[in-house]
Amino acid sequence: MDNKTLALEKEKLKQTVRVVTEAKVNLEEQLKDIGEENLEKLKDLRETPETDGLDFFMYLEQLHQKNITFNLKDKFLRLEELEYLKKDPYFARIDLQQVEGDHIRKVYIGKFGYSENEPIVTDWRAKIASVYYRYRYPQKNVKYTTPEGEVVSDLLLKRTYEIDSGDLVRYYNNDLQLDEAEIISDKIAKRTGGVLEDIIETIQGSQLDIIEADPRKFCVVQGCVGSGKSTVAIHKLSHIFFNYPQVIRPQNSLLVAKSHILIGYLSTLFPKLGIFNLNYKTLKELMINIIFREEIDQQYDLSEEALNIFTVEESAKLEKQVMSVHKKIEQKIEQLFLNEDFESFRSYKYSYKVTPYENISEIISDLDDELVMQKEQLKENPKSLRAELHKDNIRTLKKLITSLKKIRIDLKNRDFEKVLRTSGINRKNKLNYQQMLVLLFYYLEIVGLQKLKKYEYCVVDEAQDFSLLELMVLRNLVLFRRICVFGDLNQGYSHEGISDWEDINKILLNENKFEFFTLDTNYRSTKPIIELANKILSPYTQYFLPRSIERIGKGPVLSQFETAEMMLDHLKQNLEDDVKDLNKSIGLICFSVSSFDEAKNMVRKLGLDKNMVVELKENKRINYIPKGIYLTMFEDCKGLEFSKVYILDLDLDKVQDEKQAKKAFIAVTRAMNELQVYCVK
Questions:
Q1: Residue 500, exposed/middle/buried by CB under 10 A (0-12, 13-18, 19+)?
Q2: End-to-end CA distance of the chain
Q3: Measuring CA to CA, which residue among 448, 465, 369, 458 is closest to residue 411?
Q4: What contacts 140, CB < 8 A, 6 or more positions away?
Q5: pLDDT above 90 for 578
Q6: What is the pLDDT of residues 279-292, one digit of tens each?
Q7: Hey, which of 271, 300, 409, 416 has its CA 20 to 30 A from 588?
Q8: pLDDT tier at 495, thresholds 50, 70, 90
Q9: Dihedral, CA atoms, 193, 196, 202, 208, nearest 10 degrees?
Q10: pLDDT of residue 311
């Protein structure tokens, strides 16, 4: 690190911080127009994790509506970005020179962008910033895309910074001698776990391919355990909102998973990437919302989510039933317009891309417009020679519209009910989870959303846990099937989940191929932990096993005890040492209810602040923290990560089949740095 260059870079950083600080002060002055009391309340709500962000957004929306011309929302969120930039304005720099030209463009890349007359900090999501991620070292003829087309330049310098609270600690030039894997390992080792962190400084080429992939295409990401697939999913959303702000907006987009615990955990990353009003729900919550908003009159009980295996063949049967309804309605409409009185008003073309109900509604809408026009012409010329023709047209149109409305009513009642009966569903009964999925699938395919709008984009996390039926319902909630699913087949052990990504192509896309991406490197866990995980699973599969980045660490500790009391006593001793300096997250993963209850009582007696102990349960509101102890049953830990993990009641010697192996594999790979596995002999 050259001292002269360091001095110049420190001066550049001071200038940038000064400019950003001035911009922040000016914006704060503008925001005083809404009242300092309101501004302070917004800041307090923003910093209160227990509200889950909901109270903040509701209050912000209220103030925004009262000050609509002031554009309060954008200003307040911009204020948050400037606050971040003041402390950590950028993390990288690239120097580019166009192949045909002498001008050298210095681009400083940060989490958020800031410009005045010219860019001072370039947002990591900008097209030009992709050069930093795609090219390891300076070289000629690097490429990036812009709305105007492809740009070819020479990359003269690639530099990375370590900045701490506005002070430059050091910089290093990325060249052939620099080991980037070592830098990534160092950054990962400093993470505490417990909450999701952004990866904007260490995005890899394979991850960037997914983040930048065309959002108009359905894509599937097979990401091995610890590959950062959930993090990449949220970075992809952030990238889309930045680059397609008029087409795909966070308030009209969706992140969905099966687990409420996972959804809450993922949401901890949203504000760090400038995502403030994304819809994030479990599939069950989505179902309830549709039933309520669409006013579907049906008794149901969704408490039991277990599904029967739903095969490709069974899925095809549902599709066939929908097609039969399409053909029936198309034929009814065709027959109606064969009437010589109605034939002259025929101007539609039946479409299989919308629902039968929507087809009828579109025809009625067109005819309503024609009816209005005929009435206006009659009103303008009541005594003209064409008056009688207008009167005849009005009578005919009314008769035609009435006939179409009857077809539509019959469709929603008789035809819809008949299709349900073919699938063994009696609406007089209280329907279970799977039956409601079938009902909603038919409703969305035959009737379509009437009160709700479709989402503009959707990300599905841990998609291997979704059944084909669940994904068939979900596809009908998103415009143009703009969906990206993230999952790992090695972590799917429920019988109803996806077992082959190609099934999605067969059922959801009607053979229109999806884009397929793989992430095969584990960035989360140390090499010894990954070696243990692969040893557990490799007897049952060789596909999609994680590759380690060779991050060194302590070997996993596997302990067997004579009694449960001895196991818990040993755990107590270790936890007492851990809490003396609790500077990380610790996960206690239990494979039995009894060990969970005992561990819970033990943790209570450690004397920790209650806010530093988190119990993960689906029906509890959870405040995710970077430093503390997490208590969880095995079933609730998927997708999460902790610096240190204790697993209770898992005997690796007794793993006898693929399902047991997958459960053990999932549990051990929650650990980032340290792992201890306990069982009773």
A1: exposed
A2: 56
A3: 448
A4: 99, 154, 155
A5: yes
A6: 999 999 999 999 99
A7: 271
A8: confident
A9: 140
A10: 87
